[in-house]
Amino acid sequence: MGLLDREFTEDNIVISKVDDFLNWGRLSSLWQVGFGLACCAIEMMATSASHYDFDRFGVIPRPTPRQCDVIIISGTVTFKMATRVKRLYEQMPDPKYVISMGSCANCGGPYWEHGYHVLKGVDRVIPVDVYVPGCPPRPEALLEGLMKLQEKIRNESLVKKAIV
Amino acid sequence: MQEYFRNIWQGLSTVLTGMKITFKHLFVPAVTIQYPDVKVPLPERVRNRLYVNMDDCIGCDQCARVCPVNCITIETVKSVPGEDLGKTSNGKKKALWVTQFEIDIAKCCYCQLCVFPCPTECIYMTDVYEFSELERENLNFNFVTLSKEEILQKKENYAKLEAEKAAQKAAAAKPAVANPEQKPTDN
Amino acid sequence: MALKTEEMVLNMGPQHPSTHGVLRLEIELDGEIIINVKPHIGYLHRCFEKHCEAMTYPQIIPYVDRMDYLASIYNEFGYAVAVERLLDIKVPERVEYIRVIMGELQRIASHTVAIGTYGLDIGAFTPFLFLFRDREKILSLFEMTCGARLLYNYIWVGGVSHDLHPNFLRQTKEFINYFKPIITEINNLLTYNKIFIERTANVGILPLDAAINYGITGPNLRASGLKWDLRRDDPYSIYDRFDFEIPVGKGWMGTVGDCWDRYYLRILEMEQSLKILEQAIEQIPDGDITSAIPKRIKPPEGQIYARVENPRGELGYFIMSKGGLQPWRVKVKAPSFVNMSIFGDLCRGHLIADVVAILGSIDIVLGEVDR
Amino acid sequence: MLTEFGKVFIFFLMAIIFVVIGVFVASLIRANRPTQEKYLIYECGENALGSPWIKFNIRFYVVALIFLIFDVEIVLLVPWAMVYQDYGFGGFIIGAIFLVLLAVGMVYEWRKGDLEWARPYPILPTVVKKRVKEEIIENKAVTNQEIVVN
Amino acid sequence: MIFEFFADLLGSQILSAIIIAALPLVFIILYVLLANWLERKVSAHMQDRLGPMRVGWHGWLQPIADMIKILQKEDIVAKDADRKLFSAAPVLVFVGCYAAFAAIPFSSAFVGADLELGLLYILAVSSIVVAGILMAGWASNNKYALIGAVRSAAQIISYEIPTVFIILCIIIVSGTLNLTTLSEQQSGTFLNWYILGGDVEGWKKFALIPFMFIGFIVMYISSVAESNRTPFDLPEAESELVAGYHTEYSGMKFAMYLFAEYANMFVVSALVVAMFLGGYQSPFGYVGDLINVPWLIPIEQFFWFTVKGLFFVFVQMWLRWTLPRLRVDQLMALCWKYLIPIAFVNLLIISFLMIL
Amino acid sequence: MKSTQEIYNLLKEKFQEKVIQHLNTLPKEEVIEVRPESINEIVEFLRDDKELHFDNLILLSGVDDANGSKNKLEDGTEEITGGTLSVYYHIESMDLRHKLVLKVSAPRENPEVESIYDVYGCANWHEREAFDMLGIIFKNHPDLTRILMPYDWEFGYPLRKDYRNPEFYQGMKVPY
Amino acid sequence: MNLYDFIFYFFAALTIVSAFFVVTTKNIIYAAFNLLLTFFGVAGIYVLLGADFLAIVQLIIYVGGILILMLFGVMLTNKITNVQIKTEASFVIPASIGVGLFAGVLIAILLKTEWRNSPADIPISTLVPIGKLLMEEWAFVFILLGVLLLIALIGAASIARKE
Amino acid sequence: MMEVGLQHFLVVSAILFSLGIFGVVTRKNAVMVLMGIELILNAANINFIAFAKYGNFGFDGQLIALFVIVLAAAEAAIALAIVLNIYKNFATVNVDEINKLKE
Ligand code: SF4
Ligand code: SF4
Ligand code: SF4
């Protein structure tokens, strides 16, 4: 059983330092599954292109999910695709994160009403960490979403949160 | 044989040409915008998050009707006579209490169609794009300025008025006029 | 014959670095040689045609955008042309020019992605980013005009939503001047690279008769050697006023209709688009842009098929109206869908690596294939 | 006295130890949250179609075979290369004969096409029901002219 | 020699050897971190980007963050994979790469193991890598991995032949296989480097120059191919085979491949440097000589060796970010039809020249 | 260049009752309606005839005419019985530059149309799409399977006017 | 026990154990990878015997060549698709008895015999003497080997290619 | 335990040799038989080299071992080619089955 699976009941300085250290590693090196779905994928590509440069945040696309930390659901998830998305997500090693990018991935977007073949929100199949709104979101918005995710990771802790 | 050496030559020379170009670019300053530190000014027509200036909204439902995605939900209540709702900035008189004005930004496709028909130009797109959320519910924006109690009160007021009217009508034995403003919400 | 190896079925996609989105290819292999490729599409089927039946005519435009998301303007253009023909609307001069300018800018933007991702498929990473860098410049032009970067909702039936920004023409001119040397650079970096030529020339040859029979259009058809461009051959809007050439594939590095031809044709087309842009910017008149926009679009009963030359080929809209506010049926002839249908035949007998090269060279957009 | 190969041996041990320690340390830290789908073979998100353990193209084998022979010859050439200069022209001739034999084998393989990798034999797409007679239409006529590669 | 130094200091040769063996490990780790960062920076700047920027100055902490993250990643062994071989493969691959460091002379004072047969030894251990790669592909039970592995094996063994031919050329000219001796022979200025004919006397030197140059080019091309980098990176060609033989690997085991890849890049660069570009010798002479501080010389030598090695690593990156990749048949054709005949003729000519 | 009327006359002469009618009352496009079971012959003739030489199939679109009787179900949706489904073929000649629209109609309950995949290569996928979306069955088609929808989609043909969404597909909720 | 002995026992054990697995394991791929270890161990023994050139040749040819060739051969010839690549063995019991006896006798003889047990001095580089021998006494064999390899190359390639 | 000398190497060689024979005898798969043969050859080589060192025969032993390796490689190449060829014809590499099939 690895350290990450363990939950400590009490907080102390060592744990919080270790926490910070591990979290820092995780948040500054989020490798992304090289995977795009629809129009948002183009903006995702633009984000990794020279103007916005995902690499600044340590995000690089990896071809196989086995070596990835974050999956950016960029675009419309259809029913035909949903099972595949789920499997891709499952095949990533833990700890892993999900960014849902764009209206479609958030809740079906413009297709929520008549889209007989569109999954209304990717959170119906996989747990989403950050929702980035927009159709498509500007690259900056995606970067902001990523920073929000980093913020979230930074606040993760091995200490079991006391049930208040 | 000639072909053989030409291939070698072409291979080497084109590779070197390519390498020259990439080497040159090694020293070309990067075009990257360092986003969180530097933000490029957006052009004025930029289309991002919607905003509704509720002071100006007359609750005419135009925007909701034109939206292809149906992500605007408006519910209005007629004012009772004597209530002053104020005027919009371009001089129209408001006659309806807007008791619900929700835009589900998560669904919106940023097409700007809702902006054009608005008679008071109170719904418009801003340049705010940094509003990612950890929960999807937070993306459902509510623009109503009235508090919950006020809404309830307005509804009551109107119901009372209705009742009175109905009573009057019943008294006058006239056919009831359907309320044109009471639009059923569609989601 | 060498030792007969057993057939293997290799799966490429839907998540695969080089399937340009969510396409799944089922590749039957004999050793490394492809026996058959079966494309599975529909992973991005977003029910466009169903939406059309539930929307009013102007409301369809945002959905039209989302079909071929790399060339949204052109989708709107085609749709607007179709509805205008159905309604018998004549749009003002200035609008026509704006549309042409936007359309050609969009064509360049779309081709940059096509060329860039093609380089990526072959393994060259850098040209892709160079081209994306320049595409960003075009996008900022669009953003300046209508506020959106990718999906514009700009061309409306009877007009356009905004007039041009005062700075637009000047910046476009700057862009044209900026972009010309870039094309040379890309040529030196990628197009004439020996490895690139080896990878693409004589690969995926599409003979002309098969191309016509399969209804292939756009650069892919022209690369096979037919001078067929709807801007010339079935002129819409004001394309008959411009002086430009239609490049056709000549088998520069190999056989007519191979991958290199298809690729190079796009580069030539970008040059021609720049030429059209220059002329359009010279000629654009002043005037009103909203005068022809109808308040309520309610076409009479009837049907129309109108088509335009999208960066990927012939984009046609078959609109059937039964007199309501909503169309009865809208069917899109999506060029990528048609171009994709020959893909399986094109791959036979090649190596696995060639699948990627061929797929990249026919330049599909899955949003349009699946709609 | 530790010989040079002794040091090499320690290098080997060192490398193994490094990997083992690396994996071990990681196992102390890393998470382990098994799910069923996680342990499926990755195949672009699809179910794997058939087993990957198939037989391979014979080319791989032939390449390995030629390589082996070449390797052996080269290994024999190494002692020759060290000393042949002491034997003057005669030494060179012995090596040269050997090399020429090698070259003969090489040329033979080349001629026989064993050096060709599995080459693509593209099958062109065709019209399903071809028209009886193909006419050349004016529009289709394309002049063939070379472009200048700069 | 450092070995003797430590042996005297600690009184035990084994301990000393362990330290000697550990030092390259430290070097590799530092170098991999640097190379990883460099690769991302170089690629970024070639593409008008910036590359990692957010952790540390210009992102220099990026590889460290990557490592820390990889430490935390789950280690997945698919159900159908062959567990034993799956875990053994990274060991083999890394061992193969690392063992090659033993023979590399970093400076006159620091050689892991001063092998008489250094050049051949490096070749020999690199064949372990091939077996490891095949094992990885096989054990993964994954099509992409298997095809990638088999291709990779075929590629590496094919490109070994031109390499060996060029090594033979060097043996003929220098009369040694010992990398340290080889470096020593090229001392003095860069005019003595083997790419410029080495320390051979008279007209032969000038006659050798073009052939040495050809040899150098062939050697470099084939060594790039042996370390599976673009334009020869088909075994892990992203666009067709996902990630090649390490498709199924995650977490630390994947990191081992990463280490091995970068280490391999350095090994082949070092080999080229030692053979053609003077090894650890400075091109101009030493400051230590000038100011008469003998202990400075090995340090300078180390510096020069690292600089030269890194330069060729950089060239590999440069190539990678410039060129498209070859197809498998073209790759083989390049080896069998171009490099091998050229290297062969080169060998004949050089061997003939040397007896004249 | 030939007008639709001329082509109609030609076809009528050659194929007699297999060609049903020439619809030219509607604005914008004239349509020739033919029998669904002989569409392949007609198209092949159109392609191979020297005068006509329609070498390119632009578009094949299925349309739900929804002209049968509609009966409301309890949940407010409609069900249509009877009537027809149609297929429109837009063909053109790239060198002679004329276009033509053909139409076939088949009864909704048994919409069988002859496949023309062997005349025009691209018809293959178009027909599969029409099958997928509207359930039009193309006889003799080599591989008439769903193309856009999942292969195991068993909830009907989505582009029919009376299509109803299922509640769940593979455990995923379909409506919003 | 000094270091030399220890390393010898290590390599001897490595060789023998892995060789044992080679001949007993069911899975042919395991056998191949165990063979790798055997070759490696034998190379170690060569080194201990002062034959460094041969050790390296062993690695280059056996590990880098023959083993890879065998792996490719295995991949080419086995119906790996459905069954686990297992190979049966026959006559296991008689064979093990016979071989056991044989080995016993052999070893007994070996141990009984008084071997002249004085190691010769082996120079640092074995390459030059080997080269000298090759050029002087064995030059003819050297050329002959060239011919043989040529025949092997042509023969093997054409057999493999043959219908 | 006595100091490692010639006998030790010879014993290792003998065991390896026996194992090789065992493999050749028991295995049905032709490739496995080949592996057995390689083991035998390796055992022989150990002998050669051991004697070269302890027997004071000079370098001839090593040279012959080198020749053996070379021949082993040639043998392996040819043998595997034949195996492949047999496989092509009989679709099996099982030695017994091939015997049967030949009749
Ligand atoms: S959110 Fe908008 S841009 Fe993104 S995939 Fe959906 S429709 Fe396309
Ligand atoms: S921008 Fe478009 S989708 Fe969004 S609320 Fe307005 S009309 Fe609706
Ligand atoms: S159109 Fe304008 S005034 Fe009318 S409801 Fe919408 S926001 Fe309010």
Count of helical regions of chain B: 3
As laid out across the biggest beta sheet of chain B, the strand order is 2-3-5
Under CATH, the topology of the domain at 50-167 in chain B can be stated as Alpha-Beta Plaits
What's the CATH topology label of chain H? Helix Hairpins
Helix content of chain H: over 70%
Q: Number of DSSP helices of chain H?
A: 4
Return the string of H and E elements of chain H. HHHH
N- to C-terminal distance of chain H: 56 Å
**Roughly what is the average pLDDT of chain H, rounded to an integer?**
75
| Helix content, binned percent of chain B | 25-40%
Query: How many separate domains make up the residues of chain H?
Result: 1
The chain pair with the largest interface is:
D-E, 70 and 87 residues
Whole-angstrom Rg of chain H: 17 Å
Task: Offer a concise description of the structure.
Chain B is of the alpha+beta class and 187 residues long.
Description:
- The complex is a heterooctamer.
- By secondary structure, chain B is α+β, with helices and mostly antiparallel strands.
- The model of chain B is unreliable at 180-187 (pLDDT under 50).
- Chain B has helices at residues 2-26, 62-66, 148-172; strands at residues 50-52, 72-78, 96-104, 123-125, 140-142.
- Chain B has a domain at 50-167: Alpha-Beta Plaits (2-Layer Sandwich), CATH 3.30.70.3270.
- Chain C has a single domain (8-370), classed as Orthogonal Bundle (Cytochrome-c3 Hydrogenase, chain B).
- Helix content of chain C is 49%, strand content 13%.
- Chain C has 15 helices and eight strands.
- In chain C, the strands form three sheets. In chain C, strands 1-2-3 form a three-stranded antiparallel β-sheet. In chain C, strands 6-7-8 form a three-stranded antiparallel β-sheet. Chain C has a two-stranded antiparallel ribbon with strand order 4-5.
- The N and C termini of chain C lie far apart (44 Å).
- With 150 residues, chain D is mainly α.
- Chain D contains three helices and no strands.
- The longest helix of chain D has 26 residues, at 4-29.
- The termini of chain D are far apart.
- Chain G is mainly alpha-helical and 163 residues long.
- Chain G folds into two domains: 3-125, NADH-ubiquinone/plastoquinone oxidoreductase chain 6, subunit NuoJ (Four Helix Bundle (Hemerythrin (Met), subunit A), Up-down Bundle); 126-163.
- Chain G starts with a helix and ends with a helix.
- The interface between D and E is large, with 70 and 87 residues.
- The complex binds iron/sulfur cluster (3 copies).
- Residues 50, 67, 69, 71-72, 103, 108-114 of chain B line the site of one iron/sulfur cluster.
